[in-house]
Amino acid sequence: MIGVAFLSIVVVFLAWKMQRQRKEIEAFSGQLEKWLDEMVSGREIIAGKDTEDSLYGRVGEKISRVNHIWKRKEEEGQKEKEALKELISDISHQIKTPLANIKIYLELLEGEKLLGQANEFVCSIARQTEKLDFLLQGMVKMSRLETGVIHIQKSPALLIETLGRAVQSVVPRAEEKGLSLSAECDEKLMVSHDIKWTEEAVFNILDNAVKYTPYGGVIRLTVTVQEIYVKISIKDSGKGIRAERLAEIFTRFYREPEVHGQDGIGIGLYLARKIIELQNGYIEVYSEVGKGSEFQVYLERI
Predict the structure, then answer these.
(1) Does residue 268 contact residue 250 with C-beta atoms inside 8 Å?
(2) What are phi and psi of 155, to 5 degrees?
(3) Mean pLDDT (10-residue bins), the chain, 302 residues
(4) pLDDT tens track for 191-232
(5) Which of 161, 174, 238, 244 is the most buried (most CB within 10 A)?
(6) Residue 157 and residue 195: Cα distance in Å, rounded?
């Protein structure tokens, strides 16, 4: 009888202890979730000093330190972005005036009757000036997007109008190369997107397609409505991209070795991806050397 009573006491004690441990674990889990929520919201985490020697205190102190390090890194990153923005803004300001003067002098020279190779030299200077102006504008756009100076503002709008303006911008160059350029999109399709910047992103992809598709090639833009996203497909019959380079084409200033003779500075695709990602979308690319490329832009449906 004594043994049975003792065993019963042991069982009751163990059950009580397990119940207490479960409550402690639940309480600790709740506190840990609270700390994590505070980290996500950016609030300061302060661990109780009266529990420094407990599990609560030790874990809380570690999380507080991690949170402090993250916030410091975030502040440092923001300072670097601000410094970059100021640098590019200063460069832009310093270059704009001499660039404008060069354009004025070029217009005066183009109106004159030049002898020998002088006319050819003036045309070459004009092309390089336009390239420099394009680079300057691209760098300013890039810095503004990265530092959050420009905020993406999505609103429901007809997608065909946005895509139409992007297509029209590349029509002259496409006609010069004898390219077949077509676009298919439901005229009534409404998509929540930033009209100006989405046009910029699609134009950059189309401009690349025109640039690297040989004379007489084909470029086709099609829009497909999916369950969650609207897919904008831009397919060309250009030179294609090697598989090992697909991960690099969206990086800043990247240009494939074979195309360094072509006009361009290598920020178009970088800007396109940045713009689409800021709208909670994404871009995929499929390509095969010699058989062209397909860029698929995904925007959230309304």
Answers:
(1) no
(2) -155, 150
(3) 57 63 67 66 59 61 73 76 72 75 80 74 80 74 68 91 94 92 94 93 93 92 95 94 85 68 72 91 92 94 80
(4) 999 999 999 999 999 999 998 899 999 999 999 999 999 999
(5) 238
(6) 8
171 is written with which tokens? 């029509």
Token readout for 86 is: 């100021």
Within 10 angstroms of residue 71's Cβ, the number of other Cβ atoms is 13
Q: Is the separation of the CB atoms in 143 and 84 below 8 Å?
A: yes
Q: How many residues does the chain have?
A: 302
Residue 80, both tokens: 């670097």
Residue pair 156/190 in contact by the 8 Å Cβ criterion: yes
Looking at residue 44, what is its pLDDT?
64
Distance between CA 2 and CA 14 in Å, rounded?
A: 18
